[in-house]
Amino acid sequence: MASITIRNLDDTTKQMLRERAAQHGRSMEEEVRILLRGSAASPEPAATVLPAPVIDSIPGTLSGKRILLIITGGIAAYKSLDLIRRLRERGALVRPVMTRGACAFVTPLAVGALAADRVYTELFSREDEHDVGHIRLAREADLVLVAPATADFIGKMALGLADDLASTIILASDRPLLIAPAMNPVMWAAPAVQRNVQHLREDGVHIIGPTHGEMAESGEAGAGRMAEPLAIAAAAARLLDDRPKPLAGRSAVVTSGPTHEPIDPVRYIANRSSGKQGHAIAAELAALGAQVTLISGPVTIADPQGVTTIHVESARDMLSAVENCLPSDIAVMVAAVADWRASGESGEKIKKQPDQPPPALQLTENPDILRTVGHHEQRPALVVGFAAETQNLIDNARSKLERKGADLIVANDVSPSTGIMGGDRNQVRVVSKNGVENWPDMDKQAVAAKLAQEIADRFQTAMA
Ligand SMILES: Cc1cc2nc3c(=O)[nH]c(=O)nc-3n(C[C@H](O)[C@H](O)[C@H](O)COP(=O)(O)O)c2cc1C
Question: What is the pTM assigned to this prediction?
Answer without folding.
Answer: 0.60
